[in-house]
Amino acid sequence: MNYSAVLGAAALGLAAGSASAAERSLTVYTYDSFVSEWGPGPAIEEAFETRCGDCDLRFVALDGGVDILQRLRLEGQDSGADLVLGLDMNLMAEARELDLLAPHGADTSALDLPIEWDDDTFLPYDWGHFAFVYDSEQLAEPPASFAELLEAPEDLKIILQDPRTSVTGQGLLLWIKHVYGDDAPEAWARLNERVLTVTNGWSQAYFSLFMNGEAPMVLSYASSPAYHMAVEETDRYQAAEFDEGHYLQVETAAMMRSSDEPELARDFLAFMLTPDFQRHIPLGNVMNPAIDLGAELPTVFERLIDPASLTFTPEEVHANRRAWIREWLNAAAR
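^ thats the sequence. predicted structure below, dont judge the formating
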């Protein structure tokens, strides 16, 4: 008897059985750090597939929230996505205008955010404040306000991200506009004197440059030190708390109206607000969970700064973003 042939046929049979068992598939557009080996994606995928029993969760990694929005704009109703995960609240109005998304239908009573939330399309899964993270071995006393940062010696260099391509870069754009209003161009001009470089995305700025000692400060999140404290067991990297307050980011997910699996998509959205999803956010995405995790929240989060929240409405951002980007570009060209 040809055992190889028999075993091969058996393996093919098992594979076919597995394929038929996982008849339902769900494609989720998200950003690359979410699905990296150190991000929350792999554990969330395993947890959801265990929960649904007969589905295949497929993440498609893009560069970031801005790139997700551009992909939806290009694909329209022919998009291959069932869900998008990674559009923050500052991109919501622009995404809604595409008329591609459907109501989530989820129970939002478990949400625990710094602001009230009643949107029926975009469902939060985490939140955080933009902040300048500093290396305490290079900078013993960081600025305690934008005013102090703009008055700091020019040899205090910072690393930023481009607001046209990066969600964090856009966050700083909105933060400065909220603090300085009509005087934002002048604030940008003064800040640019301290900018070492502007990168396309957060990962390059944080890991490739800041963590290699290229500058003592980088634009990131108030929650970023949690990873260093919990995983690397070091207090070296901290977030500077600014007197003016910090701009808030709420990250959301939404389902496509063209999804072939609307029921499964809504199941995933409901799953997002359960501990089985949320427990992977604090140290996987290094953000605050969207629900109260109680004792499951890592204790290092109690040691983070807790700044006042600054926000614009999504509609205000959509109406003014291009003009505010021009202000930044004009200041950078001086």
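DSSP finds 14 helices and twelve strands in the chain.
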